[in-house]
Design brief:
Elements (H helix, E strand, L loop, with lengths): L1 E2 L6 H22 L5 H8 L7 H22 L7 E2 L4 H17 L4 H10 L3 H24 L2
Antiparallel strand pairs: 1-2
Length: about 150
Amino acid sequence: MIIHWAEFTPLSAILGGLMIGVAASCIAIFNGRIAGISGILSQLMQVKNAPKHHFDWRLCFIFGLLCSSWIYQLFQPLPMIVNGSSTIILIIAGLIVGVGTRLGSGCTSGHGVCGLGRMSFRSLIATLSFMGSGFVACYLFLHIWK
């Protein structure tokens, strides 16, 4: 994957971060829920066990995530991303991320954004673990195993 850093704009990154923080805060304040994507998606898949109002907001949340890049491109062109991986590698990587999400009791948004905001020690350990693993993997793949 190649990211064109010349197209990076700090203002849009700050604005996006603020929007994520506001959205996570609104879900916590108004619904008493954590805006962790893995938890929202897994609960969305359990239609029979959840009350209807729980299903509705989760469906809207996932729909908003899926539509966000389309809405963004109405105002600003999306940055060019080149993916050099095969489809099977991407599927395997997605499955590994899913297993890690289940083992870690949450995803990066749940632990990194919401958990750290609530000063959860478990989320601190999880965030340090996945960030550290990512740093090590990047170093190995970019500098050692070229």
